[in-house]
Amino acid sequence: MSDIDQAALSRWLGTALPGFPAIARLEKFPGGQSNPTYRLVAGDKAYVLRRKPFGPLLPSAHAVDREYRLLGALHPTGFPVPRPIALCADESVIGAIFYLMEMVEGRTFWDGDLPELAKGERRAYYESLVDTIAALHAIDHVAAGLDDFGATGNYVARQVQRWTKQYRASQTDDIPEVDRLIEWLPRTVPEQTRTSIIHGDYRVDNIIFAGDGPRVRAVLDWELATIGDPLADFAYFAMAWVTPNSVRSGLLGIDLAEAGLPTLDEVVARYCEATGRDGLLDLHWYFAYNLFRAVGIIQGIKKRAADGTASSASSEEMIALLEPFARLAWTQAELAGA
Predict the structure, then answer these.
(1) 80 and 166: one domain?
(2) Residue 244 and residue 123 share a domain
(3) Is 114 inside a domain boundary?
(4) 3-state SS, residue 79
(5) What pLDDT does residue 56 have?
(6) What Rg, from alpha-carbon coordinates, does the chain have?
(7) Per-residue DSSP letters for 134-197?
C-alpha cells in the first residue's frame, strides 16, 4: 500500500511520458529518513520514484529537483548513477515534488563489515568504493554543466553556517557538545585547496554493486550533493572507521585484519594515490565537521518526528544517535586540537 495518489501519478506520467504503461505496483522502500523512495512497476519494467516529504520543510532541504539535475549531468559522463527519466515540479500532482529514474539492479550492503561476503572478497569492495569517490572528485564539473550547482570556495565554512542554522531551526534540546562545536568549528576551518562535485552522503549503503563482484553499478541518494571541498566528502566516507559498528556503516570496534577489511590508513593512501595528494591533513577536523553535520540532519529528523512528518518508522533509531554523535564529534574536535 502506498501513501501516494496512484491515479493522479498515473495521469501525470501518461502526459509527461506519452505511452508510459499503466502502473502495476507502487511500493515504498523500507528505511530512509529524508526523501521517501518507491519501487514503481509499469509494464515489464521497474523504476524508482523519489519525492520530497509531505508537510512543511526547512528551507533548501529535500531538494529532489537538484538531485534530478545532477543525475542528468553525471549520467552522460559514464559515472555510475541511475538514468533520470522525468521530474515533476508541480506539488499539486501528488502533494510533493518528485522524479522518476531507472531501477539499477544489483547488491546493496547495509553493514560496514560486509558480513554477506567471504573474508577474502571484502577488501576489493572497499577499494572500489575509494576508486569511485576519487573518480567523482576528478570530474570536471564545469564541463558537465554544473558550474552554477554550488558556490565555489569556502565550502566548509558555509556548510558549518548552514548546518548551524538548520540545527537551531529544528532544535528541541540543549546539547553542550553541539554548542561547543558551533563556537569552535567556524574559527578553525582548514583552507580549501581543491573544488569538485561532492556527494555529501557517500557510504557503503548508498551504493549498488554488481551482483557478481565489487564493481559499483550506481551511487544513490544525491540530496546533499553540491560543488565543494572533496576532502570533506572523502572524510565523510572515511568516518566509518571512527564510527561504532552498531551504527550502519561504522567499522569502529571491528578487528579489521580478522574481518579482511582495510585500515583507515590504507583507504587514505589509496585515495591520495588516485587523486595525486601527498597525504590528508586535518582529518580529525573533517571528522568533527561531518559528525556535526550528521547531528544537524538527525536533529531535523527528530523535529519532523515531533511534527508527524518523518518519512520512516525507523526514525527513532536515528534520533537515538543524536547525543552520541554530538559527543563523538567533540571527541574528534579535541583530537584536532580543540
Answers:
(1) no
(2) yes
(3) no
(4) coil
(5) 55
(6) 20
(7) HHHHHS-TTTTT-TTSS--S-HHHHHHHHHHHHHHHH--S--HHHHHHHHHGGGSPPPP---EE
The tens digit of pLDDT for each residue in 237-282 reads 999 999 988 887 899 999 999 999 999 999 999 999 999 999 998 9
- Domain of residue 98 covers 6-102
Residue pLDDT, tens place only, 95-129: 999 999 999 999 999 999 999 999 999 999 999 99
Mean pLDDT taken over the chain: 92
Contacts of 268 (CB under 8 A, 6+ apart): 238, 279, 280, 283
Same domain for 186 and 72: no
Please write the tens of the pLDDT for every residue from 3-58. Answer: 888 999 999 999 999 999 999 999 998 765 478 899 999 989 999 999 988 765 55
25 found inside a domain: yes
> What is the C-alpha to C-alpha distance for residues 159 and 172, in angstroms, rounded to an integer?
21
In a domain, residue 228? The reply is yes
- How would you list the strands of the sheet with 37-42, edge to edge? 23-28, 37-42, 45-51, 98-102, 84-88
Residue after which a domain boundary falls, among 69, 102, 135: 102
Main-chain dihedrals φ then ψ at residue 19, nearest 5 degrees: 90, 0
Is 107 domain-assigned? no
d(CA 5, CA 13): 12
Q: Are residues 38 and 65 in the same domain?
A: yes
**Are residues 92 and 152 located together in one domain of the fold?**
no
Number of structural domains in the chain: 2
Report CA dihedral (62, 296, 312, 320) to the nearest 10 degrees: 180
Residues 245 and 98 in one domain: no
37 and 181 part of one domain:
no
- pTM reported for the whole predicted model: 0.89
Q: Are 244 and 190 part of one and the same domain?
A: yes
The tens digit of pLDDT for each residue in 157-211 reads: 999 999 999 999 999 888 999 999 999 999 999 999 999 999 999 999 999 999 9
Cell 582495510 locates to 262
- What is the distance of C-alpha 241 from the center of its chain? 17
